[in-house]
Design a protein that fits this description.
Helix content is 23%, strand content 37%. It is built from three helices and 13 strands, in the order αββββββαββββββαβ. The strands form four sheets. Strands 11-12-7-13 form a four-stranded antiparallel beta sheet, with helices on one face. A three-stranded antiparallel beta sheet has the order 1-6-5. A three-stranded antiparallel beta sheet has the order 2-3-4, covered by helices on one side.
């Protein structure tokens, strides 16, 4: 039995949800998100609760039960609160700045890296060594954070590079004489 799928998703005030022919949609103050429905799972809205149940007892249906419940929860949370990922930049001369619709990163390359900010995503740089990515779609926010981190991942000797705020870097000992 899915332990996640059993729990219904509560709809906070200000969020409206609808179930279409092939998608679940949630609309709130941060926009509207659509989640495509899987054919082996039923989704129903009752008393400001979204309930997900499997249609059959196959292994695939039970796997999709928890997955669909998690995706519905992410859509509801996204349109009401949004998701934020913070990145830290470590290294001498490494910095970031938001210029118009671009994130400009100086990461030790010969030229700065320009990353265009997609629609529905906001980025802030309170300090030159931190980047905050905020948006309604959890998958999109995580993908953008991973792409920015991939420009210069943290290296294990000095820890230079772009890392997640909560990430710990396993440090290696350098060469000995």
């Amino acid at each position: 039995m899915s332990r996640i799928g059993k729990n219904p998703v509560a709809l906070p005030s200000g969020v409206t949800a609808e179930i279409g022919a092939d998608a679940f949609s949630a609309k709130g103050k941060l926009g509207q998100l659509f989640v495509p429905l899987h054919d082996e799972v039923d989704v129903a809205i009752e008393d400001n609760l979204v309930k997900v149940t499997p249609k059959t007892e196959t292994k695939r249906a039970r796997a999709m039960w928890g997955t669909m419940r998690a995706r519905v929860q992410n859509a509801v949370t996204g349109v009401s609160e949004g998701f934020t990922i913070n990145l830290e930049i470590n290294g001498v001369g490494y910095r970031a700045a938001v210029e118009g619709k671009n994130l400009v990163l100086s990461l030790g390359f010969s030229h700065p890296v320009n990353y265009p900010i997609p629609e529905g995503i906001t980025m802030k740089c309170e300090k030159p060594t931190s980047v905050s990515i905020h948006g309604a779609d959890k998958q999109k926010v995580g993908q953008i954070a991973a792409e920015i981190r991939a420009f210069r991942p943290p290296e294990p000797f000095k820890g230079k590079g772009v890392k997640y705020e909560s990430e710990t870097i396993l440090r290696k000992e350098g060469k000995k004489k």
